[in-house]
Amino acid sequence: MPARDISRSSPSSTNARPDATADRHLRYRRAARFRREFLRQGLRIFESRRRRDQQSQRCETGSLLPQRRALGRCQSDRGASEKAQREDGDREGAGKVSGRGNRIEDEPAARHDPAAVFRRHQLAGRRSHDDPDGSVTQPAPRALIAGLGLIGGSIGIALRARGWRVAFVDPNVTLDAARRANAADEKVEVLGGADLVILSTPVDVAVQLLGTRHAARGTITSACSVMQPLRDAGGKNFIAGHPLAGSHERGLAAARGDLFRGCSWFVDREDAVVSRMIADCGARAEIVTAKEHDAAVALTSHLPQVLSTALAAYLEQHGIEERFVGSGLRTFLRLAGSDASVWMPVVKANSERIGPHADAVAKIAREILTGDATAFERAQRLWARLLSSAPR
User: Fold this and answer.
1) Is the model's pLDDT at 291 over the cut of 80?
2) How far apart are CA 281 and CA 154, in angstroms?
């Protein structure tokens, strides 16, 4: 019996070529759908990223507002961004994949989904919008200054230039004036709610503030000309301080950000936030006891103020012809323009140390009048030392 020709009689042999053609068309249509889906996924990701970038920009702009309001807006914006991502994930039938940092990206569940490859490529090496340098961003420290005059205003200007948020308490200064001077961001009514409270008021007012219940919370320091009365009134959270800087001018209008640059800032003990504040003002911290400080400044600061004021008051009472006034008298009387509301509390608080020195100076003046020239020699030696040690 002759062999059967299978190649001619097999149905599969007859339909082989049409089936192969159909298979190619099917693969072509699948590939086209795959490409279209890939593009749609890419557009969704692009829109999602654009929305997140817009939200991040609004958060960054919000940092110019008070901290709590800016924080609330950023949290709200992040919530809207996450909601948009979840909606994208719902349309894609997706799970979630964590990127580096704190960002969450929606990821389609199917492993062969082309968007998965696209997303992984975009996520590789990416850092969070909230933490561009990969570290946890520290919030700006907040200072509250009581008394926004020459010293308080200068502290505010210097701290704001270093990124601090500054609030103030002062019934004599408006918020508009403080903002125009770049000395503060907001005005409040009571102490508290800050990383550091700085008392820059007259001494008697500072003592009263230390006796209020608000002074029992947080870290408090002073920027007054005496330390012992404040040390006696303050609690364990108080650091007595005094920046050795000033001017014959007064008020917020005279404040400037470089007033403390290179100056000594005395404190009676160490504290991290106080040290940071001093450094950000451009000064150097020096630790002294309150007793040692007040004894020293009685001679170097308080006595010169008393003598300048006393001479100016006497000349005004006696009467002078101004055409005979030269630069010597003007230089000696520079401190006479100081305000009594600032200096009388200082003199009263340190009078026991200032008084004996004033009596000794009067005695030397009488000795000069009787012909004792040794006072000039001692004076010249001191003046030469001061000139040689003065900052260049």
Assistant:
1) yes
2) 9
